[in-house]
Amino acid sequence: MTVTLEEAAAEARKVLATGDLSAVHCNTLGWFHALRGDAGGAAQWFRQALEIAPRDPEALIGLAGLLRDAGRLRDAALHCDVAIAAAPSYPEAWLERARVMASGGAMEEAARCYREVVALVPDHGAAHAGLASLAARDGDEPAVRIHAQAALAQDPHDPMASAALAAIELETGDAARARAIAENAAAALPGASAERAHLLSLVGDARDRCDDPVGAEAAYAQANADFAAVHAPLFAGRTSHRAFIESISDQIAQMRPGPSPQPHTARGAAQTHVFVLGYPRSGNTLLENILASLTDTLALEERPTLREADQAFLVEGGLAGLDALDESGLMPFRESYWRHVASAGLAVAGRCFVDMDPLKSIRLPLIARLFPDAHILLVRRDPRDVVWSCFRTNFALTNAAMDFTTLEGTARHYAALMTLIERARERLPLKLLEVPYHCLVQDFDAQTRAICAFIGQPWSENLRRFDRTAKTRGVATASARQVRRGLFDGTRQWERHAAFLATVEPILAPWVERLGYDR
Hints:
mainly alpha, single chain, Rossmann fold, 28 helices, 519 residues
Protein backbone atom coordinates (compact mmCIF):
# COMPACT_ATOMS: atom_id res chain seq x y z
CA MET A 1 0.00 0.00 0.00
CA THR A 2 1.35 3.44 -0.97
CA VAL A 3 1.81 5.84 1.94
CA THR A 4 1.19 9.51 1.25
CA LEU A 5 3.55 12.19 2.49
CA GLU A 6 0.80 13.44 4.82
CA GLU A 7 0.49 9.99 6.37
CA ALA A 8 4.25 9.63 6.67
CA ALA A 9 4.49 13.05 8.33
CA ALA A 10 1.75 12.15 10.80
CA GLU A 11 3.56 8.94 11.70
CA ALA A 12 6.87 10.83 12.06
CA ARG A 13 5.28 13.23 14.53
CA LYS A 14 3.98 10.34 16.63
CA VAL A 15 7.39 8.71 16.76
CA LEU A 16 9.22 11.95 17.53
CA ALA A 17 6.72 12.73 20.30
CA THR A 18 7.91 9.59 22.10
CA GLY A 19 11.44 11.00 22.19
CA ASP A 20 12.75 8.53 19.63
CA LEU A 21 14.70 11.04 17.52
CA SER A 22 15.44 9.86 14.01
CA ALA A 23 16.98 11.71 11.05
CA VAL A 24 14.61 9.81 8.77
CA HIS A 25 11.54 11.16 10.55
CA CYS A 26 12.98 14.70 10.71
CA ASN A 27 13.62 14.59 6.97
CA THR A 28 10.06 13.42 6.34
CA LEU A 29 8.74 16.45 8.20
CA GLY A 30 11.25 18.66 6.38
CA TRP A 31 9.90 17.60 2.99
CA PHE A 32 6.32 17.87 4.26
CA HIS A 33 6.86 21.54 5.16
CA ALA A 34 8.98 22.29 2.07
CA LEU A 35 6.30 21.04 -0.33
CA ARG A 36 3.78 23.30 1.37
CA GLY A 37 5.90 26.40 0.97
CA ASP A 38 6.94 26.60 4.62
CA ALA A 39 10.67 27.16 4.11
CA GLY A 40 11.29 28.06 7.73
CA GLY A 41 9.59 24.95 9.08
CA ALA A 42 11.35 22.76 6.53
CA ALA A 43 14.77 24.19 7.39
CA GLN A 44 14.15 23.60 11.09
CA TRP A 45 13.47 19.88 10.55
CA PHE A 46 16.36 19.39 8.12
CA ARG A 47 18.73 21.01 10.64
CA GLN A 48 17.32 18.77 13.36
CA ALA A 49 18.16 15.79 11.15
CA LEU A 50 21.74 17.05 10.78
CA GLU A 51 22.10 17.39 14.55
CA ILE A 52 21.29 13.68 14.76
CA ALA A 53 23.32 12.66 11.67
CA PRO A 54 25.72 15.50 10.72
CA ARG A 55 26.42 14.23 7.16
CA ASP A 56 22.93 12.97 6.34
CA PRO A 57 22.70 13.49 2.55
CA GLU A 58 18.92 13.82 2.45
CA ALA A 59 18.91 16.64 5.01
CA LEU A 60 21.81 18.36 3.25
CA ILE A 61 19.98 18.24 -0.08
CA GLY A 62 16.77 19.44 1.52
CA LEU A 63 18.60 22.49 2.84
CA ALA A 64 20.37 22.96 -0.50
CA GLY A 65 17.02 23.21 -2.26
CA LEU A 66 15.80 25.82 0.23
CA LEU A 67 19.00 27.81 -0.21
CA ARG A 68 18.65 27.63 -3.99
CA ASP A 69 15.10 28.95 -3.77
CA ALA A 70 16.38 31.82 -1.62
CA GLY A 71 19.04 32.71 -4.20
CA ARG A 72 21.94 31.59 -1.97
CA LEU A 73 23.54 29.49 -4.68
CA ARG A 74 27.04 29.29 -3.23
CA ASP A 75 25.73 27.94 0.08
CA ALA A 76 23.43 25.55 -1.80
CA ALA A 77 26.37 24.21 -3.83
CA LEU A 78 28.44 23.69 -0.68
CA HIS A 79 25.64 21.64 0.89
CA CYS A 80 25.46 19.53 -2.27
CA ASP A 81 29.20 18.96 -2.24
CA VAL A 82 29.11 17.74 1.35
CA ALA A 83 26.21 15.40 0.51
CA ILE A 84 28.05 14.00 -2.53
CA ALA A 85 31.23 13.49 -0.50
CA ALA A 86 29.19 11.58 2.09
CA ALA A 87 27.18 9.56 -0.45
CA PRO A 88 28.64 9.66 -3.98
CA SER A 89 26.00 7.25 -5.27
CA TYR A 90 23.05 9.25 -3.94
CA PRO A 91 21.35 10.45 -7.17
CA GLU A 92 19.30 13.22 -5.55
CA ALA A 93 22.49 14.94 -4.41
CA TRP A 94 23.72 15.13 -8.00
CA LEU A 95 20.25 16.21 -9.14
CA GLU A 96 20.13 19.11 -6.69
CA ARG A 97 23.65 20.16 -7.61
CA ALA A 98 22.61 20.19 -11.27
CA ARG A 99 19.70 22.48 -10.42
CA VAL A 100 21.94 24.80 -8.43
CA MET A 101 24.46 25.00 -11.27
CA ALA A 102 21.71 25.70 -13.81
CA SER A 103 20.30 28.45 -11.58
CA GLY A 104 23.74 30.07 -11.54
CA GLY A 105 24.25 29.83 -15.30
CA ALA A 106 26.93 27.10 -15.11
CA MET A 107 25.22 25.04 -17.78
CA GLU A 108 28.07 22.68 -18.65
CA GLU A 109 28.49 21.70 -15.02
CA ALA A 110 24.72 21.34 -14.66
CA ALA A 111 24.69 18.95 -17.62
CA ARG A 112 27.54 16.93 -16.11
CA CYS A 113 25.64 16.55 -12.85
CA TYR A 114 22.44 15.52 -14.63
CA ARG A 115 24.45 12.89 -16.51
CA GLU A 116 25.79 11.59 -13.20
CA VAL A 117 22.19 11.04 -12.10
CA VAL A 118 21.34 9.17 -15.31
CA ALA A 119 24.45 7.02 -14.90
CA LEU A 120 23.19 6.00 -11.47
CA VAL A 121 19.50 5.73 -12.42
CA PRO A 122 19.10 5.42 -16.23
CA ASP A 123 15.37 6.12 -16.24
CA HIS A 124 15.48 9.06 -13.78
CA GLY A 125 12.75 11.31 -15.18
CA ALA A 126 13.80 14.57 -13.49
CA ALA A 127 17.40 14.22 -14.70
CA HIS A 128 16.28 13.56 -18.27
CA ALA A 129 13.97 16.57 -18.04
CA GLY A 130 16.91 18.70 -16.90
CA LEU A 131 19.04 17.51 -19.80
CA ALA A 132 16.17 18.21 -22.20
CA SER A 133 15.89 21.74 -20.81
CA LEU A 134 19.61 22.42 -21.28
CA ALA A 135 19.49 20.96 -24.79
CA ALA A 136 16.56 23.22 -25.67
CA ARG A 137 18.58 26.22 -24.52
CA ASP A 138 21.38 25.12 -26.85
CA GLY A 139 19.01 24.38 -29.75
CA ASP A 140 20.00 20.69 -29.81
CA GLU A 141 16.79 19.21 -31.24
CA PRO A 142 17.80 15.51 -31.19
CA ALA A 143 18.91 15.68 -27.56
CA VAL A 144 15.74 17.51 -26.55
CA ARG A 145 13.55 14.81 -28.07
CA ILE A 146 15.55 11.92 -26.59
CA HIS A 147 15.64 13.27 -23.05
CA ALA A 148 12.14 14.79 -23.06
CA GLN A 149 10.63 11.51 -24.19
CA ALA A 150 12.54 9.66 -21.46
CA ALA A 151 11.22 12.11 -18.87
CA LEU A 152 7.66 11.99 -20.17
CA ALA A 153 7.74 8.20 -20.05
CA GLN A 154 8.04 8.57 -16.28
CA ASP A 155 5.61 11.50 -15.96
CA PRO A 156 3.46 12.37 -19.00
CA HIS A 157 2.93 15.90 -17.65
CA ASP A 158 6.52 16.66 -16.58
CA PRO A 159 6.59 20.48 -16.86
CA MET A 160 10.32 20.84 -17.57
CA ALA A 161 10.32 18.22 -20.32
CA SER A 162 7.15 19.67 -21.81
CA ALA A 163 8.66 23.15 -21.79
CA ALA A 164 11.78 21.86 -23.54
CA LEU A 165 9.68 20.19 -26.24
CA ALA A 166 7.57 23.30 -26.73
CA ALA A 167 10.69 25.47 -26.99
CA ILE A 168 12.28 23.23 -29.62
CA GLU A 169 9.03 23.13 -31.61
CA LEU A 170 9.06 26.92 -31.60
CA GLU A 171 12.68 27.00 -32.73
CA THR A 172 12.04 24.53 -35.55
CA GLY A 173 8.95 26.44 -36.71
CA ASP A 174 5.95 24.47 -35.49
CA ALA A 175 4.24 27.11 -33.33
CA ALA A 176 0.89 25.28 -33.31
CA ARG A 177 2.51 22.14 -31.92
CA ALA A 178 4.43 24.20 -29.37
CA ARG A 179 1.20 25.89 -28.30
CA ALA A 180 -0.59 22.58 -27.78
CA ILE A 181 2.26 21.10 -25.72
CA ALA A 182 2.69 24.16 -23.50
CA GLU A 183 -1.04 24.78 -22.98
CA ASN A 184 -1.69 21.15 -22.04
CA ALA A 185 1.24 21.01 -19.62
CA ALA A 186 0.28 24.34 -18.00
CA ALA A 187 -3.33 23.18 -17.58
CA ALA A 188 -2.12 20.08 -15.73
CA LEU A 189 -0.55 22.22 -12.99
CA PRO A 190 -3.02 23.14 -10.24
CA GLY A 191 -1.77 26.58 -9.24
CA ALA A 192 0.93 29.21 -9.47
CA SER A 193 4.44 27.79 -9.72
CA ALA A 194 7.74 28.61 -11.38
CA GLU A 195 7.12 25.72 -13.78
CA ARG A 196 3.71 27.02 -14.80
CA ALA A 197 5.12 30.53 -15.24
CA HIS A 198 7.71 29.16 -17.68
CA LEU A 199 5.11 27.15 -19.59
CA LEU A 200 2.74 30.13 -19.82
CA SER A 201 5.57 32.26 -21.18
CA LEU A 202 6.02 29.66 -23.93
CA VAL A 203 2.25 29.68 -24.50
CA GLY A 204 2.55 33.42 -25.08
CA ASP A 205 5.40 32.95 -27.56
CA ALA A 206 3.46 30.28 -29.43
CA ARG A 207 0.23 32.28 -29.54
CA ASP A 208 2.12 35.31 -30.85
CA ARG A 209 3.62 33.15 -33.62
CA CYS A 210 0.10 31.86 -34.35
CA ASP A 211 -1.08 35.45 -34.93
CA ASP A 212 -2.97 35.69 -31.65
CA PRO A 213 -1.44 38.80 -30.01
CA VAL A 214 -4.27 39.28 -27.52
CA GLY A 215 -4.00 35.65 -26.39
CA ALA A 216 -0.25 36.07 -26.12
CA GLU A 217 -0.63 39.13 -23.91
CA ALA A 218 -2.98 37.24 -21.60
CA ALA A 219 -0.54 34.33 -21.31
CA TYR A 220 2.40 36.60 -20.54
CA ALA A 221 0.38 38.48 -17.92
CA GLN A 222 -0.59 35.22 -16.20
CA ALA A 223 2.99 33.94 -16.38
CA ASN A 224 4.19 37.11 -14.65
CA ALA A 225 1.44 36.88 -12.05
CA ASP A 226 2.55 33.32 -11.26
CA PHE A 227 6.20 34.38 -11.06
CA ALA A 228 5.33 37.22 -8.69
CA ALA A 229 3.10 35.04 -6.51
CA VAL A 230 5.73 32.34 -6.14
CA HIS A 231 8.58 34.67 -5.27
CA ALA A 232 6.79 37.49 -3.40
CA PRO A 233 7.56 36.04 0.08
CA LEU A 234 11.28 36.09 -0.67
CA PHE A 235 11.17 39.81 -1.51
CA ALA A 236 8.73 40.90 1.19
CA GLY A 237 10.06 44.00 2.92
CA ARG A 238 12.94 44.46 0.49
CA THR A 239 13.61 47.63 -1.44
CA SER A 240 12.56 47.23 -5.05
CA HIS A 241 15.22 47.17 -7.73
CA ARG A 242 13.80 50.38 -9.20
CA ALA A 243 14.13 52.13 -5.83
CA PHE A 244 17.74 50.86 -5.64
CA ILE A 245 18.44 52.38 -9.06
CA GLU A 246 16.80 55.67 -8.09
CA SER A 247 18.89 55.93 -4.90
CA ILE A 248 22.10 55.56 -6.91
CA SER A 249 20.85 58.02 -9.51
CA ASP A 250 20.22 60.58 -6.76
CA GLN A 251 23.75 60.10 -5.48
CA ILE A 252 25.19 60.62 -8.96
CA ALA A 253 23.33 63.94 -9.16
CA GLN A 254 25.16 65.02 -5.97
CA MET A 255 28.61 63.86 -7.03
CA ARG A 256 31.42 66.36 -7.41
CA PRO A 257 34.00 64.34 -9.32
CA GLY A 258 37.55 65.54 -9.15
CA PRO A 259 40.19 65.10 -11.88
CA SER A 260 39.80 62.01 -14.03
CA PRO A 261 41.61 58.99 -12.54
CA GLN A 262 44.70 57.82 -14.33
CA PRO A 263 44.88 54.51 -16.22
CA HIS A 264 46.16 51.75 -13.98
CA THR A 265 47.67 48.31 -14.09
CA ALA A 266 46.28 45.63 -11.79
CA ARG A 267 47.29 41.99 -11.53
CA GLY A 268 45.48 39.90 -14.13
CA ALA A 269 44.11 42.92 -16.00
CA ALA A 270 43.22 42.71 -19.69
CA GLN A 271 45.08 44.77 -22.24
CA THR A 272 41.78 46.09 -23.64
CA HIS A 273 38.81 46.28 -21.30
CA VAL A 274 35.28 46.59 -22.73
CA PHE A 275 31.93 46.83 -20.95
CA VAL A 276 28.76 46.07 -22.93
CA LEU A 277 25.95 47.83 -21.10
CA GLY A 278 22.45 49.17 -21.78
CA TYR A 279 19.25 47.45 -20.67
CA PRO A 280 18.04 43.83 -20.77
CA ARG A 281 16.65 42.74 -24.15
CA SER A 282 18.39 45.57 -26.01
CA GLY A 283 20.84 43.43 -27.99
CA ASN A 284 23.63 43.09 -25.43
CA THR A 285 24.05 39.32 -25.89
CA LEU A 286 24.16 39.80 -29.66
CA LEU A 287 26.95 42.37 -29.36
CA GLU A 288 28.84 40.25 -26.82
CA ASN A 289 28.99 37.29 -29.20
CA ILE A 290 29.94 39.54 -32.12
CA LEU A 291 32.90 40.85 -30.10
CA ALA A 292 33.77 37.35 -28.86
CA SER A 293 34.31 36.46 -32.52
CA LEU A 294 37.33 38.78 -32.65
CA THR A 295 40.77 37.21 -32.52
CA ASP A 296 42.29 37.01 -29.04
CA THR A 297 39.12 38.27 -27.36
CA LEU A 298 37.37 36.70 -24.36
CA ALA A 299 33.88 37.57 -23.13
CA LEU A 300 31.92 36.96 -19.96
CA GLU A 301 28.17 37.31 -19.62
CA GLU A 302 26.27 38.64 -16.62
CA ARG A 303 28.62 37.74 -13.78
CA PRO A 304 28.93 39.78 -10.53
CA THR A 305 32.49 40.85 -11.26
CA LEU A 306 32.09 44.08 -9.22
CA ARG A 307 30.75 42.29 -6.12
CA GLU A 308 33.10 43.84 -3.53
CA ALA A 309 32.72 47.35 -4.91
CA ASP A 310 28.95 46.89 -5.04
CA GLN A 311 28.87 45.89 -1.39
CA ALA A 312 31.16 48.71 -0.26
CA PHE A 313 29.68 51.63 -2.20
CA LEU A 314 26.16 50.72 -3.35
CA VAL A 315 24.91 48.62 -0.43
CA GLU A 316 26.77 49.52 2.75
CA GLY A 317 28.32 52.90 2.04
CA GLY A 318 27.78 55.48 -0.65
CA LEU A 319 29.37 56.92 -3.75
CA ALA A 320 30.93 59.71 -1.71
CA GLY A 321 33.17 57.08 -0.12
CA LEU A 322 34.26 55.95 -3.58
CA ASP A 323 35.23 59.48 -4.59
CA ALA A 324 37.28 59.84 -1.41
CA LEU A 325 39.60 56.91 -2.22
CA ASP A 326 43.07 57.45 -3.63
CA GLU A 327 44.78 55.03 -6.00
CA SER A 328 45.98 52.77 -3.20
CA GLY A 329 42.42 52.56 -1.86
CA LEU A 330 40.99 51.76 -5.28
CA MET A 331 43.46 49.00 -6.15
CA PRO A 332 41.98 46.25 -3.92
CA PHE A 333 38.63 46.67 -5.66
CA ARG A 334 40.26 46.51 -9.08
CA GLU A 335 42.17 43.39 -8.16
CA SER A 336 39.06 41.69 -6.74
CA TYR A 337 37.32 42.40 -10.05
CA TRP A 338 40.06 40.66 -12.04
CA ARG A 339 40.06 37.75 -9.58
CA HIS A 340 36.35 37.22 -10.31
CA VAL A 341 37.13 37.22 -14.02
CA ALA A 342 39.89 34.66 -13.49
CA SER A 343 37.61 32.50 -11.32
CA ALA A 344 35.27 32.25 -14.33
CA GLY A 345 38.09 30.44 -16.13
CA LEU A 346 39.28 33.36 -18.26
CA ALA A 347 42.98 34.28 -18.54
CA VAL A 348 42.60 37.80 -19.94
CA ALA A 349 46.06 39.28 -19.31
CA GLY A 350 47.35 40.80 -22.54
CA ARG A 351 44.07 40.19 -24.36
CA CYS A 352 40.81 41.98 -25.09
CA PHE A 353 38.15 41.26 -22.45
CA VAL A 354 34.42 41.96 -22.81
CA ASP A 355 32.27 42.18 -19.68
CA MET A 356 28.66 42.00 -20.84
CA ASP A 357 25.94 42.80 -18.33
CA PRO A 358 23.20 45.30 -19.20
CA LEU A 359 22.38 45.98 -15.55
CA LYS A 360 25.99 46.95 -14.87
CA SER A 361 24.80 50.27 -16.28
CA ILE A 362 23.81 50.88 -12.66
CA ARG A 363 27.51 50.59 -11.84
CA LEU A 364 28.70 53.37 -14.16
CA PRO A 365 30.05 55.38 -11.19
CA LEU A 366 32.10 52.34 -10.12
CA ILE A 367 33.35 51.73 -13.65
CA ALA A 368 34.32 55.38 -14.14
CA ARG A 369 36.34 55.43 -10.93
CA LEU A 370 37.89 51.96 -10.98
CA PHE A 371 38.46 51.53 -14.73
CA PRO A 372 38.92 54.97 -16.32
CA ASP A 373 40.57 53.40 -19.36
CA ALA A 374 37.71 50.98 -20.07
CA HIS A 375 35.65 51.29 -23.24
CA ILE A 376 31.89 51.32 -22.69
CA LEU A 377 29.50 50.19 -25.42
CA LEU A 378 25.97 51.33 -24.57
CA VAL A 379 23.43 49.35 -26.58
CA ARG A 380 20.25 51.28 -27.38
CA ARG A 381 16.94 49.92 -28.67
CA ASP A 382 13.45 51.35 -29.12
CA PRO A 383 12.09 51.67 -25.54
CA ARG A 384 8.78 50.12 -26.59
CA ASP A 385 10.51 47.02 -27.97
CA VAL A 386 12.67 46.80 -24.84
CA VAL A 387 9.81 47.08 -22.35
CA TRP A 388 7.59 44.70 -24.29
CA SER A 389 10.41 42.15 -24.53
CA CYS A 390 11.24 42.37 -20.81
CA PHE A 391 7.58 41.95 -19.88
CA ARG A 392 7.19 38.85 -22.03
CA THR A 393 10.49 37.14 -21.13
CA ASN A 394 10.70 34.44 -18.48
CA PHE A 395 13.82 35.65 -16.66
CA ALA A 396 15.73 33.84 -13.96
CA LEU A 397 14.88 35.06 -10.48
CA THR A 398 16.53 38.37 -9.59
CA ASN A 399 15.41 41.51 -7.81
CA ALA A 400 15.08 43.20 -11.21
CA ALA A 401 12.91 40.37 -12.56
CA MET A 402 10.30 41.19 -9.93
CA ASP A 403 9.97 44.68 -11.45
CA PHE A 404 9.24 43.07 -14.82
CA THR A 405 6.16 41.22 -13.58
CA THR A 406 3.84 44.12 -14.49
CA LEU A 407 3.90 46.28 -17.58
CA GLU A 408 3.93 49.50 -15.58
CA GLY A 409 6.66 48.17 -13.30
CA THR A 410 8.78 47.32 -16.34
CA ALA A 411 8.30 50.76 -17.89
CA ARG A 412 9.12 52.60 -14.67
CA HIS A 413 12.21 50.43 -14.11
CA TYR A 414 13.35 51.25 -17.64
CA ALA A 415 12.82 54.99 -17.12
CA ALA A 416 14.73 54.87 -13.82
CA LEU A 417 17.78 53.23 -15.38
CA MET A 418 17.74 55.55 -18.39
CA THR A 419 17.69 58.52 -15.99
CA LEU A 420 20.69 57.08 -14.13
CA ILE A 421 22.61 56.59 -17.38
CA GLU A 422 21.94 60.17 -18.49
CA ARG A 423 23.10 61.57 -15.15
CA ALA A 424 26.23 59.43 -15.24
CA ARG A 425 27.05 60.62 -18.75
CA GLU A 426 26.62 64.24 -17.69
CA ARG A 427 28.79 64.04 -14.57
CA LEU A 428 31.34 61.25 -15.05
CA PRO A 429 34.38 60.80 -17.32
CA LEU A 430 33.32 57.87 -19.47
CA LYS A 431 34.77 56.50 -22.71
CA LEU A 432 31.39 55.63 -24.18
CA LEU A 433 29.97 54.79 -27.59
CA GLU A 434 26.26 54.34 -28.23
CA VAL A 435 25.38 51.28 -30.32
CA PRO A 436 21.86 51.52 -31.76
CA TYR A 437 20.43 48.03 -32.12
CA HIS A 438 18.64 48.86 -35.36
CA CYS A 439 21.91 50.04 -36.93
CA LEU A 440 23.69 46.90 -35.77
CA VAL A 441 21.17 44.57 -37.43
CA GLN A 442 20.47 46.71 -40.50
CA ASP A 443 23.99 47.93 -41.36
CA PHE A 444 26.14 45.31 -39.68
CA ASP A 445 29.52 45.92 -41.30
CA ALA A 446 29.48 49.70 -40.89
CA GLN A 447 28.39 49.51 -37.27
CA THR A 448 30.86 46.80 -36.29
CA ARG A 449 33.70 48.68 -38.01
CA ALA A 450 32.85 51.74 -35.91
CA ILE A 451 32.78 49.63 -32.76
CA CYS A 452 36.16 48.04 -33.54
CA ALA A 453 37.69 51.44 -34.20
CA PHE A 454 36.37 52.69 -30.86
CA ILE A 455 37.81 49.79 -28.84
CA GLY A 456 41.04 49.69 -30.84
CA GLN A 457 40.63 46.21 -32.34
CA PRO A 458 41.03 45.23 -36.01
CA TRP A 459 37.77 44.44 -37.79
CA SER A 460 37.45 40.90 -39.15
CA GLU A 461 34.96 39.03 -41.30
CA ASN A 462 34.76 36.58 -38.39
CA LEU A 463 32.35 39.02 -36.78
CA ARG A 464 29.72 38.01 -39.32
CA ARG A 465 29.89 34.45 -38.00
CA PHE A 466 28.91 35.35 -34.44
CA ASP A 467 26.17 32.69 -34.49
CA ARG A 468 28.88 30.01 -34.66
CA THR A 469 30.63 31.70 -31.75
CA ALA A 470 27.41 31.60 -29.75
CA LYS A 471 26.92 27.90 -30.44
CA THR A 472 30.51 27.14 -29.46
CA ARG A 473 30.56 29.26 -26.31
CA GLY A 474 27.01 28.56 -25.20
CA VAL A 475 24.66 31.34 -24.18
CA ALA A 476 23.12 31.45 -20.71
CA THR A 477 20.95 34.55 -21.12
CA ALA A 478 17.36 34.69 -22.30
CA SER A 479 18.61 35.73 -25.77
CA ALA A 480 20.13 32.33 -26.56
CA ARG A 481 17.59 31.32 -29.18
CA GLN A 482 17.75 34.63 -31.09
CA VAL A 483 21.56 34.80 -31.18
CA ARG A 484 21.83 31.25 -32.55
CA ARG A 485 19.62 32.29 -35.48
CA GLY A 486 22.26 34.66 -36.80
CA LEU A 487 21.50 38.24 -37.76
CA PHE A 488 17.85 38.82 -36.98
CA ASP A 489 16.06 42.16 -37.21
CA GLY A 490 13.91 42.36 -34.08
CA THR A 491 12.89 45.98 -34.50
CA ARG A 492 9.31 47.22 -34.18
CA GLN A 493 7.97 44.06 -32.57
CA TRP A 494 6.03 46.28 -30.18
CA GLU A 495 3.69 47.45 -32.95
CA ARG A 496 1.62 44.23 -32.83
CA HIS A 497 0.96 45.02 -29.19
CA ALA A 498 0.53 48.79 -29.42
CA ALA A 499 -2.91 48.77 -27.78
CA PHE A 500 -1.59 46.72 -24.86
CA LEU A 501 1.37 49.10 -24.44
CA ALA A 502 -0.80 52.22 -24.57
CA THR A 503 -1.09 52.32 -20.78
CA VAL A 504 2.67 52.91 -20.38
CA GLU A 505 3.07 55.26 -23.35
CA PRO A 506 3.29 58.37 -21.09
CA ILE A 507 6.20 56.79 -19.18
CA LEU A 508 8.10 55.79 -22.32
CA ALA A 509 7.31 58.73 -24.62
CA PRO A 510 10.12 60.99 -23.30
CA TRP A 511 12.67 58.24 -23.95
CA VAL A 512 11.23 57.35 -27.34
CA GLU A 513 11.73 61.00 -28.30
CA ARG A 514 15.12 61.45 -26.66
CA LEU A 515 16.57 58.35 -28.33
CA GLY A 516 15.15 59.30 -31.72
CA TYR A 517 12.59 56.51 -32.12
CA ASP A 518 9.67 58.90 -32.69
CA ARG A 519 10.70 59.45 -36.29
